[in-house]
Amino acid sequence: FSVMSSPVKNSRGETIAVVEVLRDITEMKRLQRKITEQNDKLQNDLDIARKLQCNMLPKELPNAAVKFSFVYKPCEKLGGDFLDIFNIDEKRIGMYIADVSGRGVSASLLTVFLRSSINKKILQPSSVLKEIYREFNSNFFGQDLYITIFYAIIDLENSTITYSNAGHNACPVVFNRNRFEILRSPGIPISDWFDHPEYTDSVLPLIKNDRIFFYTDGIVELRNHKNEQFGEERLIDLLTDYSSDPNTILNRIVDKACSFAGVDSTEIPDDITMALLEMR
Q1: Which candidate, 34, 125, 144, 214, has a CA 20 to 30 Å from the CA of 21?
Q2: Which residues make Cβ contacts (< 8 Å) with residue 252, sequence separation at least 6?
Q3: What's the pLDDT tens digit per position in 194-243?
Q4: Is residue 50 part of a domain?
Q5: What residues contact residue 279 under an 8 Å CB cut-off, 6+ apart?
C-alpha cells in the first residue's frame, strides 16, 4: 500500500487531526516489474545483436599484399555503417563501405541484408551495385530506407582499383607522398527511387605504398559549439602524415574530430567508420 498523510489545522494553526489516504499499488508495482523485465530483455537482445553485427566486420587481412586497418564506432548499440574486405580470388580483393539510412535495429538489419546481397563472384563493381539494387527492391523496403555504398575491386596483379559508387558522398581517397586523388563517381543510393539506375565503373592505377582511405560522413559532420563541421579539409590534413602507420592515423582522426566537437568518442551523434588500406 501507499500512504499519504495530510494534517488538519484549526484557525489558530494547530494540528487537530491527520487525514491518511491508503492506496493499493500492487498492480502498479507488478506493471513496473514487468516493464523492467521487458527492458532488461530488450537490452540483452540488443547486446546479442551488437555482437553479431561486430562479428560480421573484417577479422583478418585477406591478402599479404595489403595492409588493412579500420575504426568502427556506432553511435548506438546497433550501427548503420558497415564495411568489409575479402578475397575474390588469388589476384583480386573486394572492398566496400556503406552507410544505411536511420539508426538502431532497422539500420542494422539493412547492413545484414547488404552483406548477404554482395555477389563476390562478379568482377564489375557497377554490376554488383545493380544486383544489390534489384535485390533491395524485391524486398519492398519502402522509400524511407536506402543504402549508400562505395564498392571497389583491387587487382593485385595489374595494380589497379576499379570502383563504382551508389550515392556514397564520402568519396574514398588514394594518396601517397607524391599524389592525392579523390575517387569521385556518380550514382544513386540503393533504394526504390528509380526503376533502372545507372552505375559506372572507373579504374585508377595503383603503385606500391599507395594508401586508400575509406570513410562515412559521420566523421566530417561532427560539429563544434559554433555549429561548424569538422569537414573534409581537416580530415585530409590529418591524412598527409604519411610517416605514421594506418592505425595511428585513424585513431588520431577520431581523437581530433571528437576534440573539435567537444564530445567523447562514446557520445558521437552519428556512426563513425573509417578504413585505411595500404599497398605493400
Answers
A1: 34
A2: 238, 241, 244
A3: 888 999 999 999 998 899 999 999 999 999 999 999 999 999 889 877 67
A4: no
A5: 65, 66, 159, 206, 207, 208, 209, 210, 211, 212
* 49 contacts 30 by C-beta, under 8 angstroms: no
Of 161, 256, 271, 142, which is closest to residue 218 (Cα–Cα)?
271
Range of the domain at 181: 56-279
Looking at residue 28, what DSSP letter applies?
H
Instruction: For residue 183, give the H/E element and its range.
Output: none
Residue at 51 is within a domain? no
Instruction: Identify the CATH number of the domain in which residue 143 sits.
Output: 3.60.40.10
Q: What is the pTM of this model?
A: 0.80
Q: Where are the beta strands (DSSP E) in the chain?
A: 2-9, 15-23, 66-73, 81-87, 92-100, 147-155, 160-166, 173-175, 180-182, 202-205, 211-215, 272-279
Structural domain count, the chain? 2
Secondary structure E strands in 176-249: 180-182, 202-205, 211-215
Do 129 and 152 fall within a single domain? yes
Q: Is 51 helix (H, G, I), strand (E, B) or coil?
A: helix
Q: For the segment 19-43, what is each residue's pLDDT rounded down to a tens digit?
A: 666 676 666 777 777 777 777 666 6
If asked whether residues 108 and 205 sit together in one domain, one would say: yes
Domain assignment of residue 37, yes or no: yes
The C-alpha angle with vertex 97 and arms to 263 and 165, in degrees rounded to 5, equals 120
Max CA separation in the chain (angstroms): 100
Residue 30 and residue 162 share a domain: no
Sign of CA dihedral 44, 46, 49, 51: negative
